[in-house]
Each structure stands twice: as C-alpha cells, then as structure tokens.
C-alpha cells in the first residue's frame, strides 16, 4: 500500500510531467526512479525540500527539466519534430543544448561536445553557402583546441534509510588538459555573381535598375535552401557586417571566433547540482565531461572584382533570356569585350615575361 506522502510525491511529479517545448537547454529525469528513491528514503520530508531546492537551482540556470516515466520518454516525440543527438528519443539524465538554426520543422538538441561540433559546422556551412553567391574564392583557417577532461566521481550512499545510519556523499574531481592545432583550406571556382553586382556599392553601368537592398537579395538566395533560413541571417549581426564589407569591395576578411563559454558554464553548474542532489535522481549521467574550448582564425578571400565581373557577364550573355530584366545587354557586351581584351593583354604580358625567363635560363646553360 502506498503511503500518503508517496502519493503526494507522485502527484507532485505528475503535475510537472509537462509537454516538451522548444527550450534552449533541457534535461529529462526518470520519474519512476525518483519515486523509488523516495520510497526507500528515511528522511522523506528533508528530501522533498531538497528536490524543490534542486528545481530552483535548475530554473536559476535556465535548465528546463522534465519528469517522465520510461513510457512517457519513448512517446515524448510523437510528431518527430525533435531530435536528440540526431536520434528521435532522448536519454534520461543527459543535458541537451538546442541548435539555433531557426528551423521550424525540426528542433535539434545535442549534448555538450556534439553541440559544439554541430554548431560550428553549421556556422561554417552557412557562411560557405551564402558567400559562394558573392564571389567566395577560398577559406583558410587555423584551429586551436584546448581540451579539459573533468572527471567527476560522485558516490551517493543511502545509508540513513533502513539501518538508521547517516547518509553521506563523497565527490572528487580531476582535470586533464591538452591542446591541439589544426590548419585547413578550401578553394572555390569563379562562377561569377550577378547578386554581387545587384547590391554592391560600386554599381556596374550595365545594370539599368537601381541598387537592390541586400536583405532582399539574401532572402532570395536563402529561399532556395531547405537547410539555411533567412531568420538565422537577420539574427546574426557579425554575418551581416561581413557581407556589407564584401559589398563595399573587400577582397579579404579575417576574423577570430571562440566557442561560447555560456554552455561550458551550464555544464559546470549541472555537475554541481548532480553532485549535491544525485541521490534524489536529479543527476547528470556522464561521469566524464569533456569541456572543449576552441579558437578559430579565419582568412576569407574573394575573387578579384574584374575577374568575377568577366565571368558574370559571360553567364549573362550566354543566358540573355534569364537576365532580361535590369540588364542593359548592349552595355554588357561592350563591358565584356573591354574586360576580355584587358585579360588577353595581361596574359600576353605574363607570357612575354615567362619567355624572357626561359630564354635567360637557356643562355646561362650554354
């Protein structure tokens, strides 16, 4: 027979078995395990107060918590809108962070290390996708990774339950540090960019329409994609600034990013909560937490404006029906001929220099 106090606990937890919403940080606790812990506890009232104290600490750190049974956890994602480490079903006692990609159809959550990796991958892929429409030539980066392995061992003993001994908690921590450095680069073809010449500061005279608003151009580009949203762009000021720099004629953009320490801080706080209230079932599954801190330095290079303009005009003149609005075809032809002749002259000059070098080399060997 269930005691009135346990019925109270069950009722209390059931009222908090809410429907999953799109929170930034979430964790799921095993409701049945918590009830079982209370059944075996000698200090039920004290533990109930501790449970409410743990909840306050979670709320203070903006960690949204859910009490579910195993069956409820399996059915938490009936409409498959949510993904947890790219799986449909989350795990108990894992802290998940939401990837803010502004996707209305799929909400993706990842545990700490996966969140860092997928978040950075998404930022990089988004940048490449968008800037490839504005003459992206190459991206070079250096990556420095500082790796802290925090080994938290927490032993919770319910020795004050049946045999009237005192409960105790014992925890130790050990941190191992290591750093690695990685460099990489990626090159892109010159495919031209009519989007660039629609919105750049220096207007090309073969465009008969006024300069278009860059936000409208970006919206048009991103409407083609199912993965990248316009909402992500308008909520990312640094991305907007770099695009504005490009439209003002920037050939190279350098910047440095580090991972957000906010998420690392939440992990550290959750470890402390787990150590203090793990005997209640309010705990973090992992005993080993890898808290990685990285710094990435990017060097982004764009095609020369005239090279890109020549390739753009080539595309326009070969697809006149596609660009029948806003393009003065006669002026476009004249500009293409001018740039093409200049390109040929430059190549001839380079050829003459090369021939002279070869000639001197031959003379030196005679």
Structure description:
This protein is α+β, with helices and mostly antiparallel strands and 366 residues long. The chain is 44% helix and 23% strand. It has 12 helices and 9 strands. It has helices spanning 4-15, 31-39, 44-60, 70-74, 112-131, 194-199, 214-222, 230-234, 237-247, 261-277, 305-318, 329-365; strands at residues 25-30, 64-68, 82-84, 96-98, 107-110, 136-157, 168-187, 252-258, 288-302. Strands 2-1-4-5-3 form a 5-stranded mixed beta sheet. The chain has a 4-stranded antiparallel beta sheet with strand order 7-6-9-8. A hairpin with an 8-residue loop joins strand 4 (96-98) and strand 5 (107-110). Helix 3 runs antiparallel to helix 10 and helix 11 packs across helix 12. The longest helix has 37 residues, at 329-365. The radius of gyration is 30 Å and the shape is elongated. Mean pLDDT is 82; it is low at 152-180.
Reconstruct the topology from this structure.
Layout: H1 4-15, E1 25-30, H2 31-39, H3 44-60, E2 64-68, H4 70-74, E3 82-84, E4 96-98, E5 107-110, H5 112-131, E6 136-157, E7 168-187, H6 194-199, H7 214-222, H8 230-234, H9 237-247, E8 252-258, H10 261-277, E9 288-302, H11 305-318, H12 329-365
Helix pairs in contact: 1-2, 3-10, 11-12
Topology, number of strands: 9
Order of helices and strands: HEHHEHEEEHEEHHHHEHEHH
Characterize the main sheet. Answer: 5 strands, mixed
| DSSP helix fraction | 40-55%
N-C termini distance: 108 Å
Shape: elongated
Q: How large is the radius of gyration?
A: 30 Å
SSE-based structural type: alpha+beta
For the largest sheet, list the strands in their spatial order: 2-1-4-5-3
- Overall pLDDT: 82
